[in-house]
Amino acid sequence: MDKAKSFEDLFGGAPEARADAPGRVNLLGEHTDYNDGFVLPTAIPQRTRVEISRSPDGQHHFYAVKLDVLSSVAPEGPAPDNFAGYVFGCIELLKARGHAIGPLCMRIDSEVPMGAGLSSSAALEVATLRGLRQLFNLPIDDVEIAQIAQIAEIEYAHVRCGIMDQMASSLADTGHMLFLDTRTLERRVLPLPAHAEIVVIDSGVPRTLAGSKYNERREECEAAAARLGVPALRDITDPTATDTLPEPLRRRARHVISENNRVLEAATGICAERFGELMNASHASLRDDYEVSVPELDYLVDLLQQEETVFGARLTGAGFGGACVALVRAGEGRSVAERVLASYNRAHQGRVLVPDYRQRF
């Protein structure tokens, strides 16, 4: 493999600003954020890093190391439809808020895998906004960065996402859970259950949210909330309240309501065994009621759940492919991952995405 092109190689000088942001893994609270609900993500060790300087020629130039693609864009647009669209969107939203952002050169290098449900797009957006904040000394805080990043995803990637991914990338760390109320943005940093560690394994099945049924699920939730007479499904706590709804709205709403209840229980400080039970129930709900799993994810989760030292496992992210997360007895993560991957790879191609099993809580 050829040596990666440096910023100096690409643009003929040193960067004026550097920034980074992590991906995230969501432990509980899937598809609840765009329903004004509750989530429990944590940051992962993998990060996206950006280097930025002002462009000398009146054009934006964005280079992605992993793709080995240089995208040159006129500041007046239109927005590109590749990775550069996320960056362009962040710049345009800052300009719309009155910040003077001129043409830029940017080098992007990311350890966060794309299409694995670990928020590679949020990491790119947050890293970009952090870099621009540094370069132009912008008076924006970490919450505002997350809010701008979410709008960039919606308006420029056309994914009607909630704010969980961007808040986690902007505010979470790898040693704690971030309990977040996505309606009020009230948040608390919480420890995970004692004597446990996290394992994340990619199913090897990529997914793209814009091309999946993600937006359709959001529309179904909005329709269910309207029929139930509430602003959002977060305003209902009893899953049986959905019994009056037609299918599939009943099952979609039942998942969201029960998932919010799982997050609220987990946030009270429960043992690893009970946390694992909630993760297992979350996966069953995502598979059966929300219908966002795929056979590869179900198989991988089943292998994890059969392990004696695994407290619980579920798909993480929006589904339709991507990764699974498991809560494992401290010290057992590597051996669990090796056994599960050996079994999984007999039929599929998975890969461990968080190999640092010393991440214990």
TrEMBL record:
This protein's record includes keyword tRNA processing: no
EC number(s) on file: 2.7.1.6
Domain of life: Bacteria
GHMP kinase C-terminal domain: residues covered: 271-344
Organism this protein belongs to: Thermithiobacillus plumbiphilus
Residues covered by the Galactokinase N-terminal domain: 5-54
GO molecular function, one term: galactokinase activity
Biological classification of the source: Bacteria, Pseudomonadati, Pseudomonadota, Acidithiobacillia, Acidithiobacillales
InterPro entries: Galactokinase, GalKase_N, GHMP_kinase_C_dom, GHMP_kinase_C_sf, GHMP_kinase_N_dom, GHMP_knse_ATP-bd_CS, Mevalonate/galactokinase, Ribosomal_Su5_D2-typ_SF
Signal sequence residues: none
UniProt keyword list: ATP-binding, Carbohydrate metabolism, Galactose metabolism, Kinase, Nucleotide-binding, Transferase
GHMP kinase N-terminal domain residues: 86-171
PROSITE patterns: GHMP_KINASES_ATP
Transmembrane segments: none
Name listed for the protein in its UniProt record: Galactokinase
A Pfam cross-reference name: GalKase_gal_bdg
Similarity comment: Belongs to the GHMP kinase family. GalK subfamily.
Coiled coil: none
